[in-house]
């Protein structure tokens, strides 16, 4: 069970710390534990209570009324909202699913968003902000590895499912090759790159996670792709990055190299001689298609 400080709660729930303190003092919503230095701490169960109360409040229920409701009535009202399709509450539903390891709530919320907005807009407008919030909690130690793995794998499964619905292009054109470098396992952004390229009917070859360098070069020599696309999230030494891409450019005879992810974005200027930086998933198509002289925006 995770333990959260009030600033962690603010990030997770979107409720201002000042508001949480007022709810506690005025309405007795929660009674947090305190450290020896009187710092408030909250449990997973208390986070879930706050998220439920916030859901009700955002849907027209006054805090003063919610505070007087029995738990069974609160749960019933929250359930009605959960099964609804009000995407304005999607962020809180996703966080609640994370806290409670609730696969059904997460899948239903994500499916509602995708049905209304499509995967591309859902990813940029909802999944990325959600992952950013998880990232903050991960850095503070307030999200357990189990919670992070649970949600990451659900997102990964959904993107793969959407890719599987796409037609595999019948073409003799050289493909765009996608891969993750050795010891890189964070696949979500690369899978989304794959989805975006396939959505434009482009021929792609997806090699997945943690590909050894020698195997990458062998595959490039065999397939002869028109471009190489990668993502780097795990922290790595800048000297290693520069040497890696310098060697890759030499070993692939100038095939265009594209790369994104936080490690590339932090060091884009240092790497510019050997690759094209993908600044974010929303600009991928605008960057890669003109560079390859492809017209697939229709």
Description:
It is a single chain. The strands form 2 sheets. The protein has a 5-stranded parallel β-sheet. Strands 1-3-2 form a 3-stranded antiparallel β-sheet. The chain has helices spanning 6-13, 17-27, 44-58, 63-67, 71-82, 90-100, 103-117, 119-139, 145-164, 188-199, 213-223, 238-251, 262-266, 268-271, 284-291; strands at residues 3-5, 33-34, 40-43, 176-179, 204-206, 227-231, 257-260, 276-277. Strand 6, helix 12 (238-251) and strand 7 (257-260) form a beta-alpha-beta unit. The protein is an alpha/beta fold. Helix content is 58%, strand content 9%. The chain is elongated. It folds into 2 domains: 3-163, Orthogonal Bundle (Multidrug-efflux Transporter Regulator, Chain: A, Domain 2), CATH 1.10.1660; 176-291, Rossmann fold, CATH 3.40.50. It has 15 helices and 8 strands.
Summarize the structure.
The protein is α/β, with parallel strands linked by helices. 58% of the residues lie in helices and 9% in strands.
List the strand order in the largest sheet: 5-4-6-7-8
Q: Residue ranges: pLDDT <50 for 5 or more in a row?
A: none
Task: Give the total of beta strands.
Answer: 8
CATH topology of the largest domain: Multidrug-efflux Transporter Regulator, Chain: A, Domain 2
User: Please, how many domains?
Assistant: 2
């Amino acid at each position: 069970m995770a333990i959260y400080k009030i600033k962690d709660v603010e990030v997770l729930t979107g409720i201002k710390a000042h508001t949480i303190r007022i709810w506690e003092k005025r309405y007795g919503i929660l009674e947090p534990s305190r450290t020896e230095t009187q710092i408030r701490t909250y449990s997973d169960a208390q986070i879930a209570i706050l998220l439920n109360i916030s859901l009700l409040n955002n849907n027209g229920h006054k805090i003063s009324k919610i505070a007087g409701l029995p738990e069974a009535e609160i749960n019933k009202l929250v359930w009605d909202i959960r099964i609804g399709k009000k995407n304005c509450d999607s962020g809180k539903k996703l966080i609640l699913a994370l806290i409670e390891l609730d696969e059904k709530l997460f899948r239903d919320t994500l499916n509602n968003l995708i049905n209304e907005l499509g995967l591309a807009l859902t990813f940029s407008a909802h999944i990325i902000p959600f992952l950013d919030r998880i990232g903050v909690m991960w850095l503070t130690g307030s999200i357990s590895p189990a919670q992070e793995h649970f949600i990451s794998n659900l997102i990964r499964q959904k993107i793969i499912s959407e890719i599987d619905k796409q037609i595999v292009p019948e073409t003799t054109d050289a493909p765009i090759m996608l891969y993750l470098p050795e010891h890189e396992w964070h696949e979500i952004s690369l899978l989304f790159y794959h989805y975006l390229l396939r959505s434009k009917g482009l021929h792609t070859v997806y090699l997945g996670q943690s590909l050894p360098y020698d195997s990458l070069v062998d595959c490039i020599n065999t397939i002869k792709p028109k471009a190489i696309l990668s993502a780097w999230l795990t922290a790595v030494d800048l000297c290693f990055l520069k040497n890696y891409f310098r060697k890759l450019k030499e070993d692939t005879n100038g095939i265009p190299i594209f790369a994104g992810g936080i490690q590339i974005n932090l060091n884009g200027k240092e790497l510019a001689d050997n690759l094209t930086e993908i600044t974010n998933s929303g600009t991928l198509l605008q960057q890669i298609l003109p560079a390859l002289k492809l017209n697939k925006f229709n």
